[in-house]
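Journal club side-thread
Mid-discussion, someone asked how the predicted structure for our own chain would compare to the paper's figures. Pasting it here so we can look after the session.
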Amino acid sequence: MMGPSVIKYVVDTLDPVIGRSLISTDNYFYYLTLMGKYSQDNCPDYLKKDIYKKFSGPNSPIDNIRLHTDLLNDVFARLTKNSLTVAVIMDHMDWFDPEGTDADDEINALYGALAPGGRVLLRSASTAPWYIKNFERLGYKCETAAVRVSGEAIDRINMYASTWVCTKIPTRQQRKMSTLQL
């Protein structure tokens, strides 16, 4: 049932985490998964008393974050064109069909919502996601922020094999060139 690539992924994901941190005190991601709850000394910062008060009070930094739970293309269609400076879309494109149009449709919708120079942060279970070429073809400059190598953790969770930043390349019309002549 589980082929060698799945087993390798599991080993590459979990082995470095165990070697890097003690889950009971230093890795609340896996602690929550295993225990079904956080502990007071092993939880995200936003759940610690002083920070929780700041986030739950007036003028909270959280008020500047928009969360959406519907289809991204629908969200992008409702946004003002060129209004986003950063979008975090995580890993859902890994599940798109490489032969389908879903990736291109979403990348184009995202392009319309992003300001020139706007960035997309995404993660993937692959070290070389197939859809990065789609981003580049559709007007983005893509760079790896991190790539996992066997035996090493990319972060505390280590679930993803790579993290990417794709920057919207402004079109000629979007570039604001000075008309000043010397």
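Post-session note: DSSP finds seven helices and four strands in the chain.
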